[in-house]
Amino acid sequence: EHARWADRLWQAEREHDRLVAGLERRSGSIAAAFDRVCAVLDMLGYTDGDTVTADGQRLRSLFGDLDLLAAESIRQGIWDGLTAPELAACVSALTDTSRSGDDVPLLPPSAAAREALSRMEHSASELRSLEADHHAEQARAPDLGFARTAYRWTSGHSLAAVLAEADLGGGLSAGDFGRAMRPVIDMLPQVALSADEPLDTTARRAAALGRRGVVGYEDPA
Known about the structure:
2 strands, elongated
């Protein structure tokens, strides 16, 4: 009987040691990943050692898997001078994951919006290269699949017109539109908090234009 209990104790100790070792490996992995992210932020000037810089304070107001790209878009002036619909189109590239696969996305008709989206793609590529150099997890590329739809909606086009055009580009249901538009509306106030005039006013206006008729938001009128 004692031998059986001793065997059970020995097995329990082995399981305990296995779990502790796994926890230590995971903790070490998390710490290493955190250090790599900190190195990237330090290189970009969002931190200075253990100190958060003024640019880092702006970054604190942005949330999402492309928050760093959003911060860079503000800092580099990529969104400066854009209208509210143009800004909504650009912000949609940070929040949307297109269902169009390899299809070429329909871009906004605005030349300024297309230029800003192109600059965002270039900035995103530079960020991924920097993340790769520091062996940090690389963020996804911005997705332009919803940019034209967000632009047209915030420009005042009806939902029927927006969906009709989206059908030509691969199809979009009203439910899909609502699910894609809500994150854009949520992101725009974050941009407003992080940006200075006049970009913050443009971001707030874009959010207000986006809310009209979207499920889960009240019409500001």
